[in-house]
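=== RUN LOG ===
request id: a7f3
mode: sequence -> structure
chains: 1
length: 146
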Amino acid sequence: MRTKNRKFFAWFMVTATMLGMSFLWHKLMRDDFFTAPHSVDFSPLVYFGGTLLAYAAVGYVMVSALYYKLNNSRYDVPLISGPLVGMITGFIVFMLMVVTSTFYNEGMQLKTLVLGFVWQIAEQSIGGIAWGFIAGLEVENQPNLV
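=== RESULT ===
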């Protein structure tokens, strides 16, 4: 597989994994897709389109950072660096969501902030694990990456 194809596949898988985790969280665990304040202002198509673009951007940043680290580090274990970069990205995304007021449905209670913080880090870390599996397969198939 060519380098561009690998990066695109990894980007697609990381984005799909994080979107799936977001759906799991918001629809199945919290059931707040259409009870949040944003559902009044936007149609579902606009909301889900914006969500897709946001996750695609976060996924692209993660995959770019991880491939840069993989190619420039002598000893890199993808299944460790993937979740670590995911945690850092999750923290940054959480901070951006708090600053731009796109995070809260129930206000800024401590419980809500802590739960959102933990979930955001977990969600991006799971995306990093998805990248770690893909990059791990690449490293096994191409000894010159080791």
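=== NOTES ===
The first helix runs from residue 3 to 29.
Residues 49 and 106 are 23 Å apart (CA to CA).
=== END ===
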